Hints:
Largest sheet: 5 strands, parallel
Helix content: 55-70%
CATH class of one domain: Alpha Beta
CATH topology of one domain: Rossmann fold
Number of helices: 32
Distance between the termini: 73 Å
Strand order of the largest sheet: 4-3-5-6-9
CATH superfamily of one domain: Toll/interleukin-1 receptor homology (TIR) domain
Structural class: mainly alpha
Amino acid sequence: xxxxxxxxxxxxxxxxxxxxxxxxxxxxxxxxxxxxxxxxxxxxxxxxxxxxxxxxxxxxxxxxxxxxxxxxxxxxxxxxxxxxxxxxxxxxxxxxxxxxxxxxxxxxxxxxxxxxxxxxxxxxxxxxxxxxxxxxxxxxxxxxxxxxxxxxxxxxxxxxxxxxxxxxxxxxxxxxxxxxxxxxxxxxxxxxxxxxxxxxxxxxxxxxxxxxxxxxxxxxxxxxxxxxxxxxxxxxxxxxxxxxxxxxxxxxxxxxxxxxxxxxxxxxxxxxxxxxxxxxxxxxxxxxxxxxxxxxxxxxxxxxxxxxxxxxxxxxxxxxxxxxxxxxxxxxxxxxxxxxxxxxxxxxxxxxxxxxxxxxxxxxxxxxxxxxxxxxxxxxxxxxxxxxxxxxxxxxxxxxxxxxxxxxxxxxxxxxxxxxxxxxxxxxxxxxxxxxxxxxxxxxxxxxxxxxxxxxxxxxxxxxxxxxxxxxxxxxxxxxxxxxxxxxxxxxxxxxxxxxxxxxxxxxxxxxxxxxxxxxxxxxxxxxxxxxxxxxxxxxxxxxxxxxxxxxxxxxxxxxxxxxxxxxxxxxxxxxxxxxxxxxxxxxxxxxxx
Length: 594
């Protein structure tokens, strides 16, 4: 601990210790060098507060003690204050009668006790109460759990029920605030703790946060400072949030401070990876972030990224909050919500009715993203709806979105969609983008009845290259289900004049475990006589084949001295076929060719 931090640690130790009296410490003027508040009359003893409770309520009573001590109030807490060898009954009587206030903690546990020392303390307290002025508060009844205040007489026709009690069981922070308002209506303790928040010592700041949390609502003046702290990267984020929540700061205030810090670029890592502050607050923060997304003064890209990263960490438990916000959100926010729902896949099943309602939207962009969400949820009951939308021109907002219903059907994977997908894929009158998406989706579903039609699309020279490549991807995705068409693929490798189709067909054969050596003679001819782009594609195929293509090494070496972009692929193929071949040997052969 640093020399500067030690005095402040000592200060906290003194005020928190219920075994030491506070005759050395009280409120006064802060020492500018240390931040400690010293008493101007060193030897004057501070009046204390006596807390009376039953053993079953020890935790609650200790929590109340901590809250009062955090505010700089001296507390007489049970036998902790009794010196060794002292007669405890007399010490307790002195503790009650000499105290500035007496707090009686009533509870259900107290009501159930037939015998308790708390009753002895109440007798002493009632005797003392009769001696004190009527217009000055001394006796403070507190309720820790639902119960009745004892109807015990205190004289002059009054009972303990004649006092206004404070119910901590209903609202702890508000109750503590009311107690503090009576015991210590004016205090510099909060100001001292706010000053400590700026200290360079981690221990000092942590201690100040602990004490402010215990004070709760009574320390609301510290909220602006704490919110500013959230704008910075700090290891005390969770403690700061806990402190703000004890002061009943709203989630909106906390989120706004985090966003402000990101906008100031003080938290670039948060902007990229998400904020640990927001993630630690859990799923309830989701609607707050959605509200922030709608605010015009915020950077929408920043808030969107924070939202996505936060939801990614929180998981599918945020789905109910997303659904709840969907109905009343703006179209821009709805789009983001539907994107988030689609990322949860089948875990977002509860969102299905809400997503289906968005299918009635007049906003084409929203309908498209709703379809994507339906694909993620993957409920088979939506297949008929999606099939009906395959050629819906109202969804053709952008070319990349034309296949959205087909993509959703692929993600769902229901075989009942195969006949319609085959029909659209095979129809040359349909939009090319839609046909490609149908081919991809057939590969995702993987039903055997689609294999032959995909092979037909691949073989036809009349089809555009992109569609034929989509058929290759589908066949690779289907795996061994597509193995019956290997013979057709071998023939295509020999006759194909399309470089792209040749390459992707070879990849299908490799994926299906076929024997590419049947096509090696044709591939070697292409290496010798084909155009540079075709030679590059063939070299890529041979690289994927590996050692089984060893017979092609002479042909590869013969064409080594080609254009750089072809040569690099040939060298990669040679090293894949013969890992033992040296770079020096390749350079020598290339030099000889030049």
